[in-house]
Amino acid sequence: MKKNQNYKIPIVIILLIVTVMVTLSVMYLSYLQKITDENTLMNLGELAKQDAAKIENQIEQHKRMLENIIDQIDKKTTEKDIFRIYEDNIAYEEFSRLAIMHKNGTTITSDGETVALSDDIEEFFSSDDIKVSQSRKSKVDQEEINIYSKKIEIETEEVVIMLVVETSKYENIFAEAVYDGRGYEYIINSNGEIIANSQRKENNYNLIEIINKLEDKESKDKLEEMKANISIKQNGQDIYKVEEKNYYIAYKYLNVNDWYLVIIAPASIIAEEYNTSLKLTFIISIVIDTIALIIATYIVVSNKRKKEKLYNLAYIDRLTKIGNKNYFIENGTEEIKDREKNFATLTLDIDKFKSFNKKNGRETGDRLLEIIADKLNNRFGRKYLVARLSNDMFAILYKENKGIKLKKSIISVIENIEKDLENIEIEGIKYKIIISIGVYILEKGDNIYEALDKTLIAHSKTKGKYNQKYYIFNEKLEEELIKEHDIESIMEEGIEQEEFQIYYQPKVSTKTGKVTDSEALVRWIRNGEVISPASFIPIFEKNKFIIKLDKYIYESVCKDISDWKRKYDKKITVSINVSKEHLMEEMFVEEYCKIAKKYGIEPNEIELEITESATVDENFDMLGVMKKIKEAGFRISIDDFGTGYSSLSMLQNMPVDVLKIDKSFINQKDILETIMLISKKLNLKTVAEGVETEEQVKEITDLNVDLIQGYYFSKPLEKTEFEKYWQNN
C-alpha cells in the first residue's frame, strides 16, 4: 500500500505538472489567437482605409471630369458640341462613353447609339447635384457600369449629362489579390447590395444576405451592430462565424452615396500560417517554452510579412518595384523637414511614350519603364527619393547641404539623367529615348504637394520644344500662370462685349504701288487699354479658345469684305491667320464656306494664312487639310516662311498660293534671292512683311517680290482708317 502510495505522489505531481503545462499552453495559445485576431483586424482595417481612399479619389476625379465638361456647356451648346467637348477633355481609356438623356428617356451616346431609359427618368432628373449611380448593365454593350450624371439646361430643354464608367475601374483599384486571392473585397450600399467586387463577378446579389447565415447569437448580434454602424456611416471591423467558419471583416464608409468598402478574409487563411505550430504545442506540451518561443517568433515574422504586404500595396509600384506617389508624398513630407538641407523636386517622362507603346508593343513599353526605374534608382535611390508617379512619369526629391549652389548641382544631375537614359537596349535592340524634365527648387514653407504641382507645371513647359529638355520653375512662370488665369477669366466676356477688334494692314504691289491686298489682325481693347496678342494668343492656343476667336475674326472680316463690295464696287483679297488647333477641327472648312456664303463673298477673296511650323506637325494630316481648303476655293498662304522646318519637297506637294517672307530675312539678300528662286520655280506669289525703310523697298522691288507689307507704308489700321488709306492708294 505504501508502495502504491509512493507511486501515487509522483503520478499526481506529473499529472499536476502536465495539467499546469497544458493549461499554460492553452492559455498561451488563446492569448496568441487573441493577438493574431487583433493584428489581423488592425491590418484589415488599414487595408480598407487605404483602398477606400483610392476609390474616393477615383470617384472625385470622375466627378471633376464631369464638372469640367459641364462648365464648358451653356444653354446654346448643341449635342454635337457636347460630344466634342467630351472628346477634347476625357481620356478614352477612363470612360466608356458620354450620354445625353432627354426628359422622355431617349438617350444619345457619344459612340452613336440611341437607347431608351424611360424607366430611369425619375432617378436621373430628381436632383440638381452630381449623382453616382448603382451598378447596372449597359444597354449599349451589356458591360457592368456606373453612371456619373448631372441635370443641366441646354437649348431651353432640361437634359441629363452622363459619364459612363465600367464598374471594373473600381475593381481594378482593389488591393491586388487580397491575402493571395483568397480574401474578398466589395463595394456595397447601406442595404448590402453589391456595387463592385474583387472576384470580377456580376454584382446582382446582396452581401448582408449571404453572411446572414449566422449560427450563434454573438455573431448575429455583431451583424446587427454592423448593419447599425453602416446605417449611421460608422466604420468598424470584427470576427463572424458563418456556416462553422470564422471570417474577419472590415468596413469603411466611402463618402459617396451610401457606399461602403468591405474586406472579408477567412480565418483559415491566417490559421494556415501557424496551425502546424499549434498542433505541435498541444502534442509536445513538455517543451511549451520552446514552442511558445517558436510560435511567438513566427507570429512576429508573420505579422511583419503582412505589414510588408500592406506596405507594398500602399507604397510600392507594382511594375517597377520602386516607390509610388504615396511613397513620394509621405517620405518627401518627412525629408523636407530637415532644415540643414536644400531640396528640389524633379519630374521626368518619355516624349511620345504612347507612340512608343503603339509601335513596339505594351510589353516593350513596360520593360522600358522597368529599365528607367532601375537606372534612376541605381544612381539616386541610396541618397534621394525616387518614385514612379503614373504611367511614364517619374519623380526625384533631390537634396544638398546648405551653402551649395543647388541650381548648378541640379543641371549636373539632369545631364547625368540624360546620359543614362539616352540609349536603352531591350532584347538586343537600342532605342533612342528623349526625356522631358521639370524642376522646382523648394522655398521655406513649401509642402511636398505644392512642390510637386509646380514641378509638373515646369515640366509641361518642355513639351513640344525640341531645344528645351528641362525647365526650372521660377517667379516668371508663376506670374505667367496668374496672368493666364486672369486672361482666361475674361476671355468669354471679351467676345461677348466685342472687345476684340479687327485691324487691317495694307499690302502694296511692287509693280503698281497700289494697295491690292491686306492682312486682318486682331487687337483686344479692354477698358481703353490694348492687350497685346503676344499675351493672349499662346494662352488661347493652349486652352483652344483660339478656335472661337478664329471664327469671330473670320466672320468679322467676311462682313467687312461684303460691306466694301457694296460700298466701293471693287474687291480686295484679305489674308486671315488660322491656328493649328482650328485646322484640326473636323468641320473647319465646311463652317468657313457656310459663313462666306452667308455674306455673299467668294472663298477666293480670302487668303488663309498657315504658319510654316504647323505644316510639319506629325500628329495630323496637314496636307489633307490644305487640299480640302484649296478644293473649297480659298487661297493658302504660308506665313513666316524660312523660320520653320518645312522642306522643299514638302512645299512642292502643298497646294500653296503665297509665300510670306519673314521680316528677319528682309536684310539678308542671299536668303531673299534663294526664296524668290524657289517661289518663281513653284509659281508662288510672294509677300515681304516687316518692311520699314525706303532702301528695303528698293531692294525687295528689284528682286521682283510681288507685295510689300510693313510700317514703311502703313501700320495696321482700324476699319475706317484702312478704307481711307485703301481708297487713296
Outline of the structure:
The chain has 729 residues and is of the alpha+beta class. The chain is 47% helix and 23% strand. Helix 1 packs antiparallel against helix 7, helix 1 runs parallel beside helix 8 (288-315) and helix 10 packs across helix 11 (362-380).
Report the sheet-strand fraction. Answer: 15-25%
Largest sheet: 8 strands, mixed, barrel
The figure for the number of domains is 4
User: How are the strands ordered across the major sheet?
Assistant: 20-21-23-24-25-26-27-28
Mean of all residue-level pLDDT scores: 83
Describe the model.
- The chain is an alpha+beta fold.
- The chain folds into four domains: 2-59 and 174-277, Beta-Lactamase; 74-164, PAS domain (Beta-Lactamase), CATH 3.30.450; 325-473, 2-Layer Sandwich (Alpha-Beta Plaits); 483-728, EAL domain (TIM Barrel), CATH 3.20.20.450.
- It contains 23 helices and 29 strands.
- The strands form five sheets. An eight-stranded mixed barrel has the order 20-21-23-24-25-26-27-28, surrounded by four helices. Strands 1, 2, 3, 4, 5, 6 and 7 form a seven-stranded antiparallel β-sheet that branches. Strands 9-8-12-11-10 form a five-stranded antiparallel β-sheet, with helices on both faces.
- Strand 10 (236-242) and strand 11 (245-253) form a beta hairpin.
- The longest helix is centred in the first third of the chain and has 70 residues, at 2-71.
- The radius of gyration is 36 Å and the shape is elongated.
- The N and C termini lie far apart (146 Å).
- The model is unreliable at 1-7 (pLDDT under 50).
